[in-house]
Design a protein that fits this description.
Distance between the termini: 23 Å
Number of domains: 2
Structural class: alpha+beta
CATH architecture of the largest domain: Distorted Sandwich
Radius of gyration: 30 Å
Length: 561
């Protein structure tokens, strides 16, 4: 067996696995309007449930103008700040107080925006009826505040709306000290007959966010758990067709890399969820069984709404304390969940005791290298022997170039004599790949790494290295375009990979040799745009590998005579 071919396969596979998303953005599928219309008509014809009104969004004014346009009530706790629009009772203004747009400017991350802005992203809740026989509040309805007019973790708010036909609608909204809204929708029926109403909730996003990364490694878009099954749908999937699911239990929402919104319908009630594109991206649900409200009585529906930063500790506490199944999967831990999530807790602990996330990355890398030390030693010893016998192998190939059978016999005899297994250097590498990919995944998705500094010029480990070779790392007063930003850490990573290659047996095949020689440069260019925390991890890992491999190479000798 020729282990050089195996090494090439491994290297190429890893490059595709880790870096495909950096080169190829997820293509946007075109919208087939005719098929959409047919599908929507079919759904309507086959359903006895009411449809949720979908008024067109007018996007023409700024966020500040929109917020100042209508009466609002303030939202604020220690984690978020914003307001509720009394026109429609929309939650359409939320910013995260603990998370900033940039390291240096201190402006809060703005997440939810009013409907009539370009980046509109807003939440509505309400009731509907079959055939719209009952007048219910819409997005244009003006609600009144009953009592307290500031929503906080210590003071809920109550909103009221009267349909002037004997039915009064009321919303009681509560907020905890982080990201959880509890919305109780009360209907008082003082009309002359009983009524049937269906509670619903809907989030609408006017367009795909500008900062979406489209990396294969992390899902951004629609997400939900329906009867214990996780479902993830991309924006382009929803553009192509409406996605409808029914469930007895679960949650649904929209997730970004670091932020998310999610509805949790009332426990024990079957609901229909819909992800669709119609003048914006919408995720909604409607309870399938109507709430019947007799004369002179009332009905109520409750739901939970999360408008949250994807902080691991916070999300996990909600999943446990709120008894929401698989809610922790709103953070995309990936295929190697059983590796990835425990690794986060390790690095988070190291961060807390060291006070620097970059130092925590270095300590974690060292710890992982120590765990795999025996396995790596075995692998490196095998590769060192293969490198040591290469001159003899070249002599045998030249001697028996016209006799393939004899060449094979002589090479096998050489392997037996030196106790070399050509595949022994590959197996440990294959075993380690899932583990190291989990580390890569964990660092990529971690909100906790965002805006964390390292030493020197690295002020944000979640951003790329800001230095660049093309202005001599800041010595020349020129800002190169983005594709020319190749910083110090990516160069160190590439150099360490090149040194590591030199310690491995060189491929005999010229084409394979060229591929290997190109890899350090290739990865340097690719990793230049990646979060610097990932580049630090790869660099430190390479340096530790070089040190371990160098010692083994120096100690390994063979006798070929």
């Amino acid at each position: 067996m020729d282990n050089k071919n195996v090494f090439v396969a491994i290297a190429l596979s890893m490059s595709v696995l880790l870096f495909w998303g950096a080169f190829f953005e997820t293509p946007k599928k075109t919208i087939d309007q005719k098929n959409n219309q047919k599908l929507e008509q079919k759904v309507k014809e086959n359903s006895i449930l009411p449809t949720i009104d979908q008024p067109k969004v007018i996007k023409k004014i700024t966020r500040v103008e929109s917020i100042n346009k209508n009466k609002r009530i303030k939202i604020e706790n220690k984690s978020i700040i914003g307001s509720i629009n009394l026109k429609g009772a929309l939650i359409d203004d939320v910013s995260f107080k603990k998370h900033k747009q940039k390291v240096e400017d201190g402006k809060n991350i703005i997440f939810l925006n009013p409907s009539n802005t370009e980046n509109g992203f807003y939440i509505e809740t309400g009731w509907t009826s079959i055939g719209n026989k009952i007048k219910v509040p819409t997005k244009d309805s003006l609600w009144k505040v009953k009592g307290n007019n500031i929503l906080s973790n210590t003071s809920p708010v109550i909103l009221q709306w009267d349909n002037k036909e004997g039915v009064t609608f009321e919303k009681r909204i509560e907020l905890d000290d982080k990201y959880l809204f509890r919305i109780s929708q009360l209907v008082k029926n003082n009309s002359n007959s009983s009524i049937d109403l269906f509670p619903y909730a809907q989030m609408t996003r006017n367009k795909i966010p500008d900062d979406i990364q489209n990396f294969y490694i992390q899902h951004e878009g629609f997400i939900g758990v329906f009867d214990d099954e996780l479902k993830e749908d991309d924006y382009d999937d929803v553009q192509e067709k409406k996605i409808v699911r029914e469930s007895n239990e679960g949650w649904l929402g929209i997730t970004d890399k670091y932020w998310m919104t999610a509805f949790v319908p009332e426990t024990g009630k079957n609901f229909k969820s819909t992800f669709l594109y119609e003048d914006g991206f919408k995720a909604n649900y409607i309870i399938n069984k109507p709430t019947t409200i007799n004369k002179s009585s009332s009905g109520i529906n409750e739901l939970r709404l999360f408008v949250a930063a994807k902080e691991v500790e916070t999300i996990d506490s909600y999943a446990a304390n709120q008894n929401i199944k698989k809610f922790d999967l709103v953070i995309d831990w990936g295929w190697f969940y059983f590796f990835t999530k425990p690794l986060f807790f390790v690095i988070d602990y190291l961060f807390k005791i060291s006070g620097n996330f970059g130092t925590a990355i270095v300590l974690l890398t060292i710890a992982i290298r120590l765990i795999f030390f025996p396995l790596a030693n075995f692998s490196f010893r095998s590769m060192a022997k293969m490198k040591a016998v290469q001159p003899e192998m070249m002599r045998l190939k030249e001697l028996h170039k016209d006799d393939k059978v004899k060449l094979q016999q002589e090479m096998m005899a050489l392997y037996r004599k030196e106790k070399i297994n050509p595949a022994s250097g590959c197996l440990p590498v294959l075993i380690q790949i899932p583990f190291f990919f989990a580390i890569y995944k964990m660092l990529f998705i971690s909100l906790e790494m965002r805006h964390q500094p390292f030493f020197g010029w690295i002020k944000d480990l979640s951003a790329q290295d800001p230095t660049t070779l093309f202005n001599l790392f800041g010595l020349i007063p020129w800002d190169p375009p983005g594709f020319m930003i190749i910083g110090i850490w990516p160069i160190l990573m590439g150099a360490s990979m090149w040194v590591q290659q030199k310690l491995n047996p060189a491929p005999a095949d010229p084409i394979q040799a060229k591929i290997f020689a190109f890899f350090p440069l290739f990865l340097t260019i690719i990793l230049a745009s990646f979060p610097s925390g990932l580049v630090v991890y790869w660099t430190i890992n390479n340096i530790l590998t070089i040190a371990q491999q160098y010692v083994i190479v120096k100690k390994t000798t063979v006798k070929t005579n």
